Amino acid sequence: MPSSNSDICRTAKNIRPNIAAVKSDFCQMVSHMTDWERHAEASHAFDDLVGRYSNPTNKHGSRRQYHSFDHVLDCIGWIRAFYIHECGAHDALLEHASALWMAILYHDCVYITDDPSICSEVESAAVALRALSSLGFSYKFVTQVVELILATHHARPNLCGENGELIRAIDLHNFGTSLEEFRKTSPKVESEYGHVPRRMFLEGRIKFMNGLIASGRVYEHPFFFANMEEAAQRNLRDHVDDLKRELADLK
Fold it and tell me: What is the residue range of 32's domain?
């Protein structure tokens, strides 16, 4: 059972699935939770979803370096690690938290960085609503998925209870990894905002990260707060210092 930050990070990495395994689970979930066998439709819906994670993040054609389907696979690894800690096996995830698992799949399928009129979480939720409804999932299930995707808008309050806390923590898992790993992912996120003037990006990023530091709590969920918060706060402070030095050099 994971008991430290390094143990949890190692577990999440080791049980991270591949795309084929996730597709198989997706198709099985469609078969189990809808009224009839829809393997062809499910396969097509999954392929469409994966393709959306290859869409550019802006009209300048910036490629997704962090918010690709690899991010989704990482997130599934992390939620599996949580369930191993809580239940002793990650098999319980699909049985007891199917809406959470599905929301993780769709939560960043739309990711736009150059149009403030577009809310990526709202658009991602809309994609999930259309796709899952067409596959025959119940209104209750689809609504749960949509609400969990909307919960990943971190500027908004969480209205989804523990599962909302979980998906928000999973979405920000990279903040609580090792400093070395965090430094690898940060440039990937930055590249998705390549169209933004560097000074403007630095000021915005510093403001966002200082807000997390000031809140004293990146992770609302008790498990992630206990095991990941210290590393997250350290990484944020270290990165803000780096960004401030670069900003000073630009002035």
Answer: 5-250
First to last CA, the chain: 49
**Per 3-state DSSP, what percentage of the chain is helix, strand, and coil (rounded to 5)?**
70, 0, 30
CA atoms within 13 A on the CB side of 189: 13
Rounded CA gap, 78 and 249, in Å?
A: 37
Measured between alpha carbons, how far is 89 from 8 in angstroms, rounded to an integer?
A: 14
User: H or E element: which one contains 169?
Assistant: helix 161-171
Overall average pLDDT of the 76-99 stretch = 81
DSSP structure class, residue 116: T
Identify the residue whose tokens are 């939770």: 33
Q: For residue 199, what is the domain's CATH number? A: 1.10.1300
Helix 161-171 vs helix 139-151: angle between axes, to the nearest 10 degrees?
50
Q: Are 192 and 120 in contact (CB under 8 A)?
A: no
* 95-133 pLDDT tens trace: 679 999 999 999 999 999 999 899 999 999 999 999 999
